[in-house]
Amino acid sequence: MKRFLTYGIVLLCVMITYLSFKAEDPIPPKNTWTHYGGSPEQSKYFEGTEITKQNVSQLKVAWHYATDDDAPNFSSPIVVDTVMYLVAKNSSLVALNTLTGKEIWIHTGLSGISRRGLNYWESKDKKDKRLIFTLNNSLQEIDAVTGKTIESFGKGGYVDMREGLDRDPQSIRRMQSMMPGVLYEDLVILGSAPGEGYFSPPGHIRAYNVVTGKLEWTFHTIPHPGEYGYDTWPKDAYKYIGGVNVWSEITVDTKTGIAYLPIGSPTYDYYGADRLGNNLFGNCLVALDARTGKRIWHYQTVHHDIWDYDLSPAPQLLTVNYKGKSIDAVSVATKHGFVFVFDRKTGQPVFPIEERAFPDTKMPGDKASPTQPIPAVVPTFTHHEVNAQNLNPYFSKADREMWLSRLKTAKSGLFVPPSDKYETIMMPGALGGANYGNTGSNARKGMMYIMTQEHASIYRLNKVGGPALPTFTANDEKRALAFYKKSCQTCHGAKLEGGVGPKLTGVGQKLMIDDFKSIISNGKGQMPAFVHVDEAAVTALYKYLGGNPNRPNFPRRNGNAKPIEGPVVANGGAKIKPDEKPVPPMSDYPEGTEHPSVRYTTDYGLEWPGLLGPPWSSMVAYDLNTGKIKWRRPIGLDSLYGKGNPNFGAPGGTLRKGMVVTSTGIIFATAKGGKLYALDEENGKILWETTLSYEVNGQPIMYQQNGKQYLVVNASSSFAKDSYNQSIKKGALPKAYVVFALPEKKK
Fold first, then answer.
1. What is the largest CA-CA distance in the chain?
2. What is residue 466's predicted lDDT score, i.e. its pLDDT?
3. Of the candidates 72, 62, 59, which has an alpha carbon nearest to the alpha carbon of residue 735?
4. Torsion over CA of 40, 41, 43 and 45, rounded to 10 degrees?
5. Distance CA 44, CA 437 (A)
6. What confidence score (pLDDT) does residue 29 get?
7. What single-letter DSSP state applies at residue 364?
């Protein structure tokens, strides 16, 4: 009896301890995928037991759904119960049965819907179910059951997101983010992508009520008078500075109600004479109260950014055990190749960060920060310099000699300021390091996973004068021809006469500037997307093709390129009311504000992505319990390019890729060339890989039905060259959302 009582007491203590642990567990289970990154925590983490390291090699295509799109499709689906919601069929929102792939309903004609995905919300009684998304510059909702627009939302079914941005709303041409925002309780928290040119609108963060569309709070990323951080800018900078926006992933800790914002750079990206100071909250990780928008803490990863080193990957929430202490931490990876780790509630660095001295800029009127924060313990995951020793060994003799000559007069290295006197070769550049969709984590193990690419940018500043005018200047002609020859001439002909692509004579008169910019940045048909292009160069090209950028720009009409077959229930979303008095975009400093007499710009200099030797794209695993890199694995088809095979386009390619981290120790990762990997989280070993028929540019997801796990990949983007497309797996599957699962067990 005494032994029995002892065992009983021990068992009772174990149960109490277990229940207490579960009650205090800071990481809720993640076995659904109702947000872009799986959950508001954006960890890309999924809990399931069916797919293991032992059987992952048996994965097969269970079913697929053809996108039937003319334009590139970068969207990621979400799954709720037995319904998958996705974008396909020329900007239609489609509901599918997850077991069969059968269409439930189709809402067509949503041209301009957010490129990367959407959000789902339901009331506590589950009677009200909504899909939330941005459409051009509006916020809209669709009934998740019927597929029809919810007209009671906002004013007539939409919210005009141009309002409340310190500019005349009718002058704002662009502010929609490619990401769908994040949900917390009854709020949708949204960033924006207002552009990166001079006088672009500011990127203030807004939260809207999911049911009514009411604006609940605004966080001024460029502080107003009297607000914290206002003194880090010139007086009245908020009236003309733009950017400082979240154009990517916002993370929310659902347990504490804290939202973590990875905030981007101020405008203009590479010359800051009109924004002297550290420029809060540019390039900051900011922690806000998700219910009120009040700042809790912030940390600036780059002071007075003149390198376009904005934050974009989702902050990751982890529990780390550092020096015997358990810490709820938040970590963020950067474009310039660093990982910063903080206490989630206080913002105190978990690992030491040092302010190190860097050279000042010599550009007139500008002043670089004398120091920049550098992690002292956690190692970098990229190179920071291009030199004669690390040039791509597979360059032709002519290319190598050309680059050796350029390196003699150029400057390269971390935080070397751009100049108008010489080339600055930044490694990594605007597309380097970690970008959106490129981070995930296993929170309980304190492991963070980063997809990175070694991609340089070559900058040289050029003077521009006065406000932007429709007049086609000599400088416009130089910019337009340089961009056209580099990016357009091969397909559209030396004299706009056409060839592989259509002729472009007078196309500027047929398109609004926003539509023209959208085609350049998103691609269309077989035309690839040019993600990072200097806005001045695009505007110059638009004028070269006969366009007037100051022409009034009415909201785009929704429509279909061709009739859509299937269970169509609605078309076009909410009916957008045209602007009553559209006005030109802001093009000069407000009267009475001090500003430099001249301005400078540069393009993104991305034409030489493979300056270094391979590998250019890698998956990197950080153990944040120790602050060390646990392993690194090259991914994608880089080596084939490096050895001179032109069919494989440019190297790199993690920019639009993603991952799924599973509780069984597998990391599913997409990579250049339609590659899909299953990696061992312990060592990065490839457990399984396959090559899809088409390129993958959306975030993969995972869901579970009746105990069975499914992996979904949007393989619907064209490869860089037709020959590249044909050299992979021509005709195996159409452009489609491809669903993988383990074979059914034989009974």
1. 98
2. 39
3. 72
4. -70
5. 9
6. 62
7. T
Beta pairing partners, 459: 424
Instruction: Write the DSSP assignment of 2-46 as a string of letters.
Output: HHHHHHHHHHHHHHHHHHHHHHH-SS-----B-STTSSTT---EE
Beta bridge partners of 130: 121, 143
Q: What is the 3-state secondary structure (H, E, C) of 627-672?
A: CEEEEEEECCCHHHHHCCCHHHCCCCCCCCCCEEEECCCEEEEEEC
Give me the sheet containing 205-209, strands edge to edge: 182-184, 187-190, 205-209, 215-219
DSSP string, 470-511: SS--HHHHHHHHHHHHHHTHHHH-TTS--SSSPP-TTGGGTS
Residue with tokens 């056209």: 484
Question: The tokens 């680059």 sit on which residue?
Answer: 403
Contact 86, 94 (CB under 8 A): yes
Task: Give the best-scoring range by mean pLDDT among 460-464, 604-608, 666-670.
Answer: 666-670
Token pair of 659, please?
Answer: 């991952």
H or E element: which one contains 122? strand 119-122
Which backbone phi and psi does 95 adopt, to 5 degrees?
-110, 130
What token pair was written down for 506? 């007078």
> Is the distance from CB of 2 to CB of 228 less than 8 angstroms?
no
* Residue 622 predicted with pLDDT over 70: yes
Contacts of 646 (CB under 8 A, 6+ apart): 721
Tell me the C-alpha distance between 426 and 111, whole Å.
Answer: 36
* 3-class SS of residue 597: coil
Q: Residues near 124 by Cβ (< 8 Å), separated by ≥ 6?
A: none
Strand, coil or helix: what is 363?
coil
How far is 557 from 193, CA to CA, in rounded Å?
A: 21
* 355 close to 342: Cβ distance less than 8 angstroms: no
Cis link prior to 281 (omega < 30° from 0)? yes
pLDDT-derived band at 392, boundaries 50, 70, 90: confident
Phi, psi for 629 (deg, rounded to 5): -80, 125
Phi, psi of 177 (to 5 degrees): -80, 150
Report the C-alpha gap between 342 and 54 in whole angstroms: 36
Backbone angles phi, psi at 248, to 5 degrees: -125, -120
Peptide bond into 268 cis (omega under 30): yes
Tokens representing 419? 């100049």
Q: How far is CA 32 from the centre of its chain?
A: 22
Token couple for 618: 């890698």
Residue 481's pLDDT band, with cuts at 50, 70 and 90, is confident
d(CA 279, CA 271) in angstroms, rounded, equals 13
- Structural domains in the chain, CATH included, are 1-74+656-747 (2.40.10.480)
**Is the distance from CB of 651 to CB of 711 less than 8 angstroms?**
no
Start-to-end CA distance of the chain, whole Å, equals 48
**Global pTM?**
0.88
Helical packing angle, 535-544 and 474-487, nearest 10°? 100
- Per DSSP, 147 falls in state -
Per-residue pLDDT, 375: 98
In 3-state terms, what secondary structure has residue 576?
A: coil
- Specify which residues 349 forms β-bridges with: 342
Residue 401, helix vs strand vs coil: helix
What are φ and ψ of residue 31, in 5° steps? -125, 25
Task: Of 215, 188, 194, 94, give the one whose Cα is nearest residue 132.
Answer: 188
Residue scoring higher pLDDT (488 or 301):
301
For residue 541, the surrounding DSSP H or E stretch is: helix 535-544
Distances (CA, A) of 272 to 198, 269, 305, 429, 599: 10, 7, 8, 18, 9
Q: Are the CB atoms for 678 and 486 separated by under 8 Å?
A: no
CA distance 318 to 313: 15
Which residue is associated with the tokens 């002043």? 367
Tokens representing 746?
Answer: 């034989």
Helix (H) or strand (E) holding 517: helix 513-522
